[in-house]
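Researcher: Let's try something more involved. This one mixes different molecule types, so please make sure each is placed in the same coordinate frame as the others.
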Amino acid sequence: MDEFSFINSIKQSTYKQSTLLKGVGDDAAVFRQSSKDIVTAVDTFVEGIHFSRKTMDPFHIGNRALAANISDMAAMGASPVFYLVSIVIPSHWTEDELSQIYRGMQSLAKQYKIDLIGGDTVSGNELTISITVIGYAACGKARYRSTAVEGDIVFVTGTLGDSIAGYHILMNPGQFINKNYYYRRHQMPDPRVAFALELEDLQRVALNDISDGIANEAAEIAEASGVSITINYQQIPTSDSFSQFTVNQQRNWPLFGGEDFELLGAVPKRDWPLVQQAAQRTQTMVTEIGYVDIGKELVYLQEENGRKPLNKKGYTHFKQVKL
Amino acid sequence: MDEFSFINSIKQSTYKQSTLLKGVGDDAAVFRQSSKDIVTAVDTFVEGIHFSRKTMDPFHIGNRALAANISDMAAMGASPVFYLVSIVIPSHWTEDELSQIYRGMQSLAKQYKIDLIGGDTVSGNELTISITVIGYAACGKARYRSTAVEGDIVFVTGTLGDSIAGYHILMNPGQFINKNYYYRRHQMPDPRVAFALELEDLQRVALNDISDGIANEAAEIAEASGVSITINYQQIPTSDSFSQFTVNQQRNWPLFGGEDFELLGAVPKRDWPLVQQAAQRTQTMVTEIGYVDIGKELVYLQEENGRKPLNKKGYTHFKQVKL
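Model: All components are placed in one shared frame. Result:
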């Protein structure tokens, strides 16, 4: 396949977004959006750091890379509309595998009606996927992590720790219950866009998506908002078959596992019923797990024997620094 | 330096663009633009393929990567406003070198008043810089390569072949005239934004920036517009001291050298004086080098002894495929 047939194979013949004026095929893409706020982020994934071929097919690699970006839009209360993809591809990857990566993205793009409007594919030594996603939010309704206030209810969507559980099962084949469920949570996570958009009527909701584990994400909200957050350990939702894992795994995965791409939020108490209604309308599980307090931008874990600071176990020293 | 001090070192304390609502520090950046079209592109640079430390300091690597992206905006008739940077950085690069890369970008960003609004820094084995740039164009005035029409004048800004000449001098130290000029053209190219914006009143102008050599760029315009383009070899502008290079170099560099980041354009004959006035107002050299003809989407080179098809000497097989 030469470069032109490759471009044709990934270039969309039609675009779904009516605000797009020019897609792939010029020096840049062009769109027009006069009534909404525009939201944009970039996320980069390097083989061996962010994903492994041991646990993911090329299709999954592409799918999950785009899912992580779409999840950033959900965390902003935005609807994803466009994406641009830059791939560095080692020569030992076949063109079929490369196509599979794009197919993994296309499958999700189709579901969300988002258009591929630019990017490039470059040869190199290390598979690297960098995706820029662009979304639209209702004017003034982009959701910031800096808006949590004392007395807010802290909630989370879905169940936590499933992605790392899936990774564990894939890396340690054996007798596990609900394998396919965990595989899917690791390989093809579902961003919570529909739920986040359903919160549009709320005056205020602080949102983060859970890419680095709830301990980290709660700390980001606490720091940005200048508050403390207390999480009730017993209330953290996990999936039904989670008891099959060791006690340590059951404890650490939901707190630090990351990449579940669920949403962590904080809303005024009076709006909690609205959050529950939004959850119901979008068939999203939502659980109250804690509360916002005044204090020193710390996260606490409340357990039966008392409340202790919950430390972040985060990335350090350029493994990944997200701006 | 830990990740937070690093983020603080590259995070802007203030932003210049009034349309920005949220910069670095959340899951995504947010901006609002109700009166202009929005233009966006991504370009990726891999060490050893797109640049070499033999001819560039880290400062230049960052500077030129952003310049190439800004040049895409110029080629669209757009004003650059924001950029997002994703860097994969090998562990043998020092944090000081990494900072220098960002400083190279910041220097250009300051000049163009554009804001860094997102990105990430990831460790990996191969230095890779992927930049997403966002710009604004007057409504309906984004410049497409598909708009050239029979009878148009074909023009180019500046002089061609200087970047590869600079690369050559850096790789083959010796007696050369105007070394610093050529170094600068290779290491710190000047995108033609001011000139492109000054063309705003023109009804129609097809534009491409010269990243891959004029033979390629002319072919892109010819193909997208369904026309032929004839370039008069004698009219191709080169710098004064270009005669110091070999006959082959003098011939091939301006045609195929690439990365000069000048603009190649096609305008109706009647508008040529307007182009010349825009050039004068922005102190940009502009030269008529050919014309648009009906025909088979081919580029011809007109020389004293006749007119022959000019073949692209382009990238193939995923060295780089730009969408």
